Amino acid sequence: MIIALLGLIIMAFILFSTGGDTQTMKYSEVIDYFEQGKVSEFVLNMKNGAMQLTLTEEATQELLEQQPGMTLGGQQTGALGGLWGGSSSGAASDTAKQAVLTYTLPYAGELLDKDNLQRYREIYAEKNGGAELKMDLLPATETPVWLTMLPMLLISVLLMAGFYYFMYKQSGGGGAMNVGRAKVKDQAEQGRKATFKDVAGADEEKEELQEIVEFLKNQTKFNTLGARIPHGVLLVGPPGTGKTLLARACAGEAGVPFYSISGSDFVEMYVGVGASRVRDLFDKAKKTAPCIVFIDEIDAVGRQRGAGLGGGHDEREQTLNQLLVEMDGFGANEGVIVIAATNRADILDKALLRPGRFDRQVYVGLPDIKGREEILKVHTRNKPLAPDVVLKTIAKSTAGFTGADLENLVNEAALLAAKRGRKAITEQDIEEASIKVVAGPEKKSRVVTEREKRLTSYHEAGHAITHYYCETADPVHEISIIPRGAAGGYTMSLPEEDKNYVTKKQMEDNIVTLLGGRVAEKLVLDDISTGASNDLERATAIARSMVMRYGFSERLGPVVYGNEPSETFLGRDLSAGRGYSETVASEIDAEIREMLDEAYEAARVMLSEHIDKLHTVAKALMEREKLSGEEFRILMEGGTLPPLDKDDAPRADAEKAEDEKSSAPRRRVSVHVKEPAVQEPASVQSETPSAEEAPKE
């Protein structure tokens, strides 16, 4: 399209430009040719004044002597140069011996004067032995005005069409004048119809929305009793829990139009666009009522007013004001139900959350073990499963996973099965996919020195043994020193059941298990590495939460200090104070240090008493590079492991041998798969390289 527009502009320049070639001959020179009888014949176009002169042989010879570079094959051009077409009079001349010149007369009247023409004939006849001067006059034909204007009009229309096309694309298909139209998506047009059968693991949430469906299907049932259906339902919950799917299923069950739009689609670069799009959205909804309007991520436009950092006009606030009016203002809004989704309900404006706008708030949390099993059934309906796959077992081992996580887990398992040429998904595929989702893919080609391998083995063994002897710690599921993703090793533990609450003892044991790797390094290697930096970071965060958020400190009492870091709203909390004095801050630091010291001492005593188990597990890790939870329990109970098969043998020594001095130190990182407020998921304590934290010599 751009090339076509450039071509039109160039064509217009050629057609409508008044300039031509550079003038090579003066008007006085043309008159001199006639006065001296050097023109044997000429053709004059009366329309545009273009003249073609044919010189005599003597004049041609003189011209060649004056201009040595000139040849008789071409023409010396004047104002119209190469635009001269040729004479239609049939006047002939020997162009091989006579030069032909072209010129555009500024005023043809003087040359065509009868006296001048007669004098030029006489001069030519006198100098050329009575020969006659030949001339041909092309009459001027009148061209219609519309034909003259046609090229200009055509190019103007094409340029305007190109401009409109670019404005249409720029405004997202709405055109330059439709920038205020709402970018709403209709579920019927997208063909993505869903029902409550597609939603699993959210039975209570579906019951809340079932009333909406019944009202949309049978309004008279509620109107008879004077009941009013909620104007809006706000779905609150972590990402990936199925809030959007619930809204789509609600519309699919009711069989009414469903309009979806994102909160960020309202506000753009133009002032007033947000409010205009809100009005347009509700105008469309009212025309097709009863219907459902779904606003995803409503916190993009529904944040608290007056929280802007600048003092200027806030376009987002105008959009919110219009949304408040449309949801519950003077105008009637019957039959239009607004469903919105967000994971930051704490920053929404209070006027938006009041009854009459969003009458209900439905919390869509993480699914429990039964919900995860139902979700797995939905996602494995069209996937072949091997007989050894038990969905209940998978649901038990995926505590803390959302519906989106489970869908991703099943998809990764299907990809692994297809990669291995299997016709069905096996338990091994799902197990490996679970670890891959948590810690990343294995990197068996990474070179690991014997020194690093020994350090990693004792570090992970320290984590595992503290898990084994802590009463409330989750059982070990797998230990590995094979690099996986960004990690150089990991210890994975899985909860045996869903936990709705976390006790003080559980958090204390969690700190002990995090410090087990550092303690094992100190006991066996008599040195410590940067590998435990993330373990210390997580342990400190847990201790700080125990003191400042949960009131677990006996010295400071059941008092909450400060705000929740994850719920900070910059516009509201920028100038907020921390809420406690410097003396209390010093006591908080001392209490956190005391908790960490006690946990470190508990881990040291635990590993010192079971130092033989530490050596046994570390030796097995160095030999096998990976231990399952069952193999780890056999070693802890004093048993022996069967010999390794060829397929399970460690990597070749050639891949691991490298000069120890050339290898960078590695640090271990402890990461949780998920971190819900009241439910602990599977955890991974891993080792990753860190050149930044390497000790300097």
Automatic annotation (TrEMBL):
UniProt protein name: ATP-dependent zinc metalloprotease FtsH
Signal sequence interval, chain numbering: none
GO MF term list: ATP binding; ATP hydrolysis activity; ATP-dependent peptidase activity; metalloendopeptidase activity; zinc ion binding
Keyword DNA damage belongs to the record: no
Assembly and binders: Homohexamer.
Positions annotated to bind Zn(2+): 459, 463, 535
Membrane topology: Multi-pass membrane protein
Subcellular location: Cell membrane; Membrane
PROSITE patterns linked: AAA
Residues at the active site: 460
SMART domains, alphabetized: AAA
Function per UniProt: Acts as a processive, ATP-dependent zinc metallopeptidase for both cytoplasmic and membrane proteins. Plays a role in the quality control of integral membrane proteins.
Gene name of the encoded protein: ftsH
Keyword GTP-binding (UniProt): no
InterPro entries linked to this entry: AAA+_ATPase, AAA_lid_3, ATPase_AAA_core, ATPase_AAA_CS, FtsH, P-loop_NTPase, Pept_M41_FtsH_extracell, Peptidase_M41
